[in-house]
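User: I'm writing a tutorial on reading structure tokens. Could you give me a worked example: one chain, its sequence, then its tokens, then a sentence or two explaining what the tokens reveal?
Assistant: Sure. Here is the example chain.
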Amino acid sequence: MVCMLLAGLTTQRGTAQTLPAETGKTPEQLEQAKFEALMRRVRAIKPAEGKISLPEANATIQLKDNYRFINRDDALLVLGELWRNPREVLTNVSGMIVPTGFDPTLEESWCVVVSYEKCGFVKDDDASEIDAGKLLTAFREYEEEENVQRKKRGYAPMWTVDWAESPHYDKSRHIIFWAKRLSSEKTGTARDTLNYDARCLGRRGLLSLNALAEIKRLPEIRKAMEDVIPQAKFNTGETYADFDSSSDHVAEYTVLGLVAAGAAAKLVGKGAFLLIILKFGKFLLIPLIFCWKYVASAARWVWELVTGKRADNAMAAKEVGNNPDDHPGNPPAS
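And here are its predicted structure tokens:
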């Protein structure tokens, strides 16, 4: 385990603490010192309990006794520095819900990454049109193309082996669910990663609860998510039912578009993948809707393949020019 962590530190630029040059130290000793410094910071994390406010999401988490919350800064330490995830795809992370006794250095550990995107009110009129089989076929085809680019940039390939849970919409709770089995091998391995996502729709945006674990823990995570989800709620006046059509902003995508975007894999900007290494070489897909300005063309490609028709003008308008990577700084239209 230590060797794996050290290997990650040698390839991660600008994340581990910089130590002053020490004469007489070998490169291995210096890397060991960096690792020990990082571990001291990780061990110093003190998760919170009880009531957690998420002001950016107009939401509150009321933790049960067997859960804790790791704040944004400490979550970035774990996700970014320990688990070696690029910071640019952690922009919307608010924190992590973890079970008591959580140890991020252990292979069997799991967590729920909490993120929020103020995208507007997402209409759910087309939720019944979600076709899990067509989506799976569509983004498997898309992965063939993307994995060629991944290999060129020195990344291992990433494949969706299958749905761990097919995408579906709970209309009574206004939550979109899906879970994917992700692997570096096309046919999967015994150590594949589970990415279990619940997107909670609110009046002004999406609260994402994204569970990360080994695929063998699916039954446990499915049960845990049903326990975790009720702990996170939008505040009074900010729920999906509180939408005011006369004044509130409507998102440029619907539930079906959200699922299509979340199923695609696309480069963020020039050279950075919308892919997160979970722990020690595993994968986490951060919700692609959080980087919509970069994935409009990919989402539209999946949309057209799944539905057999061209995307509507609202989705087409998400592209900035002909190539969304040409203007990475521009925000989505509002």
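What the tokens reveal: The CA atoms of residues 64 and 227 lie 9 Å apart. The chain is about 30% helix and 25% strand.
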